Amino acid sequence: MSIIAIYVIKLLLLPPTSLAMLALVGLLLRKRKWGKNMAIVCLALLWLLSLPIVVKHWAMLWERVPPLSTEAVQQFKPQVLVVIGGGIETSAPEYPGQVTLHVRTLLRVRYAAKLAGELGLPILASGGGMLEPDEIPEADLMAQTLESEFKTPVAWREPRSSNTAENARFSRELLNELGINKIVLVTQAYHMPRAALEFRKAGFEVLPAPTAFIGHAGKSRWLDWLPSPTAWSNSFLLAHEMVGMWWYRMRY
After folding, report:
1. Which of 2, 21, 23, 80 would you label with 199, given CA atoms 20 to 30 Å apart?
2. How far apart are CA 101 and CA 167, in angstroms?
3. CA distance 56 to 60
4. Any residues with CB less than 8 A from the CB of 248 and at least 6 apart, and which?
5. In 3D, which of 216, 232, 222 has the Cα closest to residue 18?
6. According to DSSP H, which parts of the chain are helical?
7. How far is CA 129 from CA 4, 220, 246, in A?
8. Closest CA to 132 of 94, 97, 172
9. Backbone angles phi, psi at 5, to 5 degrees
10. Higher model confidence: residue 97 or residue 175?
11. Quick one: fold of 70-211?
12. pTM to 2 decimals?
């Protein structure tokens, strides 16, 4: 199945799109009691998921891995830093070929550059995700960004993977030949539970280095109680990871 088809299926099955569709069906069938009730429930859930305060607390329950600490690094003694791709943007006319890193990937790359400078570790960039044969692999684009914009060299590139499980498997194939087993893994905090699980299943010892937390402790602002499109976007990401964790357990 193509990457585009998978994306469309996920978009339709996960909130907020799925809730909006079910609410519409309920409204069309509102003369039936179950239709009216379904519309009310789905609209109420849509409203709740539009509130940053709700999504933040949901994320705090899911983003269980804490930020990387100096003490953890000293005890673990990692050999390499692995950063996973999070997608590319193909409608960026200000860049050559109109292609650049998606903001998710850019956040990961930026943190990887910071850690590489602090820890003195070599970097493996992992990501393929090509839609067309002539498109640049995500790992190559990540390496170009790290080297040209963050002045951080990339030791290895893994350009074949199209999902998190393949990130882990193909990275293992590459690093196993070099005798490298202990890695610092960089990805978004919401993605880390599934990513760390897959890399451990592939045979790595993993020290997680999550970044870009959706949930965070601290005082709530009054704006957190107002509907926000960003909250809907984050609810999609969290739901995607929860379903993805279940699916990976079934498939892999």
Report:
1. 2
2. 17
3. 6
4. 164, 165, 194, 197, 198
5. 232
6. 3-13, 17-28, 33-49, 52-62, 70-76, 103-119, 138-148, 164-176, 192-201, 229-251
7. 10, 37, 22
8. 97
9. -60, -40
10. 175
11. Rossmann fold (3.40.50)
12. 0.93
